[in-house]
Design goal:
By secondary structure, the chain is an alpha+beta fold. The chain has two domains: 5-104, 2-Layer Sandwich (Alpha-Beta Plaits), CATH 3.30.70.3250; 124-159. The protein has five helices and five strands; from the N terminus they run E-H-E-E-H-E-E-H-H-H. The protein has a five-stranded antiparallel β-sheet, sandwiched between helices. A hairpin with a 5-residue loop joins strand 2 (53-57) and strand 3. Helix 4 (127-141) packs across helix 5 (148-159). The longest helix is centred in the first third of the chain and has 25 residues, at 25-49. Belongs to the eukaryotic/archaeal RNase P protein component 2 family. InterPro entries: Pop5/Rpp14/Rnp2-like, Rnp2-like_sf. It holds the Pfam family RNase_P_Rpp14.
Length: 168
């Protein structure tokens, strides 16, 4: 039996965006679990934390990708608006979390790439930055990173063709 998951694409909004660089995946995960426990009690906390994980956190754009089991995703979804601050290394940062998209893996990855690229591609000039975007895009489309398909997309990326994705 396969366990289905729901992916939450969220945006972390802080008063001072420079403070996002101090946050880690563990900090976000801890505060999300804390919010679920506060709202839904022990049952909600246990149900959500079985397979809850932070799959992606971009400290520069504030994009977060959370994964939890499909059976209990409503607990997580209803708890996200109640996260009003994050604490890391003894400092408390007032914030809120916007939920941008909820869905399966493929659709969320497409929306993630669109949202993340729309914020990063304009300022992306280094080879490393373009390569990280390419790897993310290739994974979403089901390509292997070492395959020849990725080099085809990389040539298109250099030509400026592959950097425009439709919004899903």
């Amino acid at each position: 039996m396969r366990l289905k998951s729901r992916y939450f694409l969220c945006e972390l909004v802080l008063e001072d965006p420079r403070r996002r660089q101090n946050l880690s995946q563990g900090t976000v995960l801890h505060h999300v679990k804390e919010a679920v426990a506060r709202l839904h009690g022990d049952f909600g906390a246990a149900a959500v934390s079985i397979a809850l994980s932070v799959k992606y956190l971009n400290a520069y754009t504030g994009i977060i990708l959370l994964r939890c089991r499909k059976d209990y995703h409503q607990f997580l979804w209803s708890s996200l608006p109640f996260i009003t601050s994050l604490e890391n290394r003894g400092q408390r940062y007032p914030c809120f979390i916007n939920t941008l998209h909820v869905g399966g893996k493929k659709t969320v990855y497409l929306v993630l790439i669109h949202k993340d690229m729309s914020k990063r591609v304009i300022t992306c000039v280094s080879f490393r930055c373009k390569l990280s975007i390419l790897y993310l895009w290739a994974e979403c489309l089901g390509y292997t990173v070492s395959g020849h398909h990725v080099t085809d997309h990389w040539q298109m990326c250099n030509a400026g063709i592959a950097l425009t994705l439709p919004y899903y």
